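Worked problem 6 (solution included).
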Amino acid sequence: MRSRAATALLGAAVAVSFTGANAQARPKEPHTERVSTTGAGAQLDGYSHQGVLSDDGRYLAFFTKAAEFGCRQNTYTCLRLKDRDTGEVTAVPGAGGHSWAPPVISGDGRHVGHTSGTKVPVPYLYDRTTGTTHEVLPESDPQAWTGELWSVTREGGQVAYGAGSRTRPTQRLYVRDLATGANDLISGEADGDKEFASLSADGTRVAYQVRTAGDDPADVLVRNRATGDVVHVDKGLGKGSLVQLSDNGRYVVFGADGGTYVRDLRTGRTRHVADTPATSASRDGRYAVLAAAEGDTLTLLDLRTGRRVPVGPGQAVPGAVTAKGREVAFTSGATDLVPGDTNGDTDVFVRHTR
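Solution. The predicted structure is:
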């Protein structure tokens, strides 16, 4: 059984940085950029995937097996944090085991969350300013010694995570206040196992996906932590899948019946916005990335106007879209997206949409 004590690791002792001496400002015009590179911009020998971005696009977290970062010899992938303005690439401490879920990054780029472990998933949060990593589990719950990290507020003050036992690692949903260490139980094991969660910027609302039985195997719910009220946002639409709760806590982007919907929690109105499921959305709740059909590309959808912009062939994970939909991170094995792509592996790219 793992200790619930917070593990502090000095970033300077375990992080390896590669800084490009000639780092330049990122161009603004629409184009595709390969971002899983060394600090000097060279391609990597080894695959990279599951890129997530801070709100302004400056910070990128991604998994890699790159030989240049010493990851080729590892049994598991490495997690790296890249400052795209300076080119600095930093190893995220504590992420040396199997990656059980995509990484999570705060809107300001200071905190990187991950779920790692050689035998069971354990949630961690890294603070790049202090260089420390903390295990995120409830000390008061002896039955919750494994789990999965899903969401961190914009400034990293609170995190939402699943916790439980080896056989049911996400049977409970907690929100943790990192300043006080308090863990608020949002949904217990009797409600069903949780599969994903998303926090508003102030942490007062949490949206979550719960596994259920019968003809409707998954529901999307939103809990107001101040009042205790719970809204079932996908009711009557079949199997639901949570994509994103907006930072202001008003909009929920979710999938159901193979399509994408937006629920306005203030008015109670639910809109069907696409016949294709979304895989990621911006934290402001305005833009969503629609999954690519076979042989097709990802699409960025403006949920307010309906405007669609091609992104590229591949996959995007939650946290891949910057504020105002200006950039989208995605994983692709295509070799014709940027010049000089000869490594024969999947890479992480960013599409600048405007």
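Discussion: Residues 11-14 form the longest helix (4 residues).
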